[in-house]
Structures are given as structure tokens and as C-alpha cells.
Amino acid sequence: xxxxxxxxxxxxxxxxxxxxxxxxxSAARGHAxxxxxxxxxxxxxxxxxxxxxxxxxxxxxxxxxxxxxxAKCDAILMTGFWECSKGCLAERGRASDLGIPVLYTMAHLxxxxxxxxxxxxxx
Length: 123
Description:
The protein has one domain (6-122): Rossmann fold, CATH 3.40.50.10400. Helix content is 54%, strand content 11%. It contains 5 helices and 4 strands; from the N terminus they run E-H-E-H-H-E-H-E-H. Helix 3 (59-70) packs parallel to helix 4. The termini are close together.
């Protein structure tokens, strides 16, 4: 068991405008900050690949890489309007396939990290 749980922050990325994408990246960053403050290690794909569409890297390539990173995580946190995002739905599906806990609220995340810490202390 690692020292801190690695939490994948799933958040919609795409939008109709560049400023919409920027807003999504910023919102994902805010959720990642909350993960860090609660004692987890945040992995935010929105921030990891921010505006890489400018480098003409196809969405499929980025999502494939994100799913590889997800496999290394201890939980996934679904944020924003994830239900409307093809990428977030794919991430949630992959997490479920891998048996990775899917968290939907900050309260769920707080309980998950508390349980993680309790198991770590008991071992």
C-alpha cells in the first residue's frame, strides 16, 4: 500500500470554444487541489494534457494514455458534468472493469481517504 492514495480526477475536457475548454481545465484543477488538501495524490488528465489539441494530438491518443494512467490509480473521482462526457464515461467504465473504486462526491472521497489512512495505520 502506497503512502497516499492516487486519485484520478475525471472531469469533462471538451467544449464548444477554447474558453470553454480552459474553464473545464480550471475546474478540474480545483478538484485536484481538493484531493491534495484531503491527503490524496491527484492525477488530473485535463491538466496533464491541457490544450494539447494545439499540438494536433488526436483525442483518441490522449484518452488511451489517460486510461493507462487510470490503471495505476487507487480510485477515480467523477466531477463536473461527467455524465455528458464521452471521455469521462469511458474512464468510469474502465475503472469499473479494473475494480477501481468510483467516487462521486467530495464526501465519498473524504471517507475513502480516511479508510485508506486507517488501513495504512493498522498495517
